[in-house]
Amino acid sequence: MRRQKKDDAHGSVKESAVDLPQMWNLINGLPFVEVPHNRSSHNVPSGWITVRVFVSSTFDDFYSEREMLIMQVFPELREWCEAHSMCLVECDLRWGIPKDTPSGQIFATCLGELDRCHQDTRGMPFMVVLLGERAGWIPDATEVPEEIVDVYHWINGLSVTGTEILHGAYRNYNPNAAFCLRNPSFLPELPEEVLPRYQDKGHKALFMQSLKEQIAHRFPKDQILHYGCQILATDSTAGPEKVRPSSDKLQSETVEEGKNYDEYKLKGKVIIHGVIDQYYGRKE
C-alpha cells in the first residue's frame, strides 16, 4: 500500500481505496480545486478573451464523437466566438500523448492542461465529458508518482478519465461542465471482436456505473445529455478498426441558416455555447 500521509487541506488520510464505496467516500471528502486565476492571452488581439474547452473521454470508443466535435461543432463555435472577440482553444489530447509516455507524464500533461483551463475561469473550466461503458486505464498505486497524489489528490482505484472529471468538474460542482452519456443499446450490434473496445466488464463496469451515479447525484439535469446512436460502418483509416456511431434521432428544429443537426451535435453545441455565453456575458 502507498504510504499514508496526513492531508492538512481536508483533515483526512490519503490511502488506497479498497472498494468503490470507500473510494467515493474519500473523493467526496476532498477540498475544492484551487488554481490561481491567470487569464491567458494565447496570442490574441488586445481586448479579446481566450476560451479553452477541455474534452475528456476514453479515446478509441469515442473516436467518432471527438471527430464530430473537432470537425463540425468547434469550427462553428469558433466563428461565434470570434464574432464576440473570443479565441476558442479546444483541448483534445488524443494526439498530444505518445503511446509509450510514462504514467507520471500522462497525468502531468492531462491535469496541467486542465490547470490552464482553471486559471482562465476561476476554477470553473469549460469541459465536455463523454461517457460510455469503458473506464479506460485505471493505474495501480505504484504507477502514480507521489507528486501527482500530493498535488491533485489522486485516489487509488480512479481511472485517468475519472481523475480529469474530478479535477475539472466534480470537486468544484462545476456549472461549466457538460456530461454527454451515450446509451449502450447499440452494443449488441457490434461484432464480438470489437465489443471489448466499447464495453468493460467486472470491476471496471461497476466503476463506470458508480461514476455515472455520482455525476447524476451531484449535477443538475440540464448539465447531463443522454444520447443514443446506431452503427453506420467501421473505419480503419486511423489505426485499429473503429466503429462510427451516428445519433439515432434528428432534431426537428431548424437552426442556423436551415441546417439540421443530429441530437449529439446540436445539444453539444448548445451546451458549450450556453456556458461560454453565461460565463463571459457576451450577449448577441
UniProtKB/TrEMBL annotation:
Region annotation Disordered: where it falls in the sequence: 237-258
Compositionally biased intervals (Basic and acidic residues): 241-258
Keyword annotations of the record: Repeat
KW Repeat (keyword) present: yes
Protein name in UniProt: DUF4062 domain-containing protein
Taxonomic lineage: Eukaryota, Metazoa, Chordata, Craniata, Vertebrata
